[in-house]
Amino acid sequence: MTTTDTIAALALAVAVVAAVAAIGSWRAARNANGAAQTLSRIEQQRQHADLTPHFRCTVVANEARSTAMLRVHLEGPPGLLSHGAIEITASLRNDNPHRGDGPQLAGGPTPEDVRAHIWGPWKFSADGRDDTGRTVAPQQLAIGEWTRYGLTPTTPPPWSTTNTDDWRRDYANEPVRLSITARSKGSEWTVPLEVPVTIEMTS
């Protein structure tokens, strides 16, 4: 092998080593970048979880159970103070999350009809409610403040053979199953709650 050949071989070897080193550096940088992104995502998720709103809710019905009042109090957490007022939307959940999942009977209600009906003791009567009384319009609420919503008893679905008295008796001791969605500065939280109903007795 001539001197020229030796130099060329050495140059090639150096180039191969440099290429391998470059690939190794690129992989290390990519792995480091991926790890940094993962840690950043975990930290964002932790901060989001730490800021999940804390609600204290009560439902008080009159003695005849013809009307009730839902009171929603935003208690925290303190980290939300810097957000100012947050937007909340209250909705009612059905007594069973699997309502409408079963087979559809010929001539019976569709799964959508079953899910759309409120399977629970109360629906919203407050201003800004939707057509079914399941959801009320969003409003702003600051930490330490509260708001309230009027409620009225639900009725059996139109396809049911259950009468209204039996329907209300079946749900007499059931809680109000709420879902409160809170939004602030691009973040969103959904908080499920079950609120027992207190009867206001008159003397």
Could you explain how this protein is built, in words?
- By secondary structure, the chain is of the alpha+beta class.
- The protein has 2 domains: 1-50; 53-200, Sandwich (Immunoglobulin-like), CATH 2.60.40.
- 30% of the residues lie in helices and 30% in strands.
- It is built from 3 helices and 9 strands; from the N terminus they run αβββαβββαβββ.
- The strands form 2 sheets. It has a 5-stranded mixed beta sheet, with no helix packed on it. A 4-stranded antiparallel beta sheet has the order 5-3-7-8, with no helix packed on it.
Provide keyphrases for this structure:
Secreted protein, 9 strands, 4-stranded antiparallel beta sheet, alpha+beta, Immunoglobulin-like, 203 residues, 2 domains, 5-stranded mixed beta sheet, 3 helices
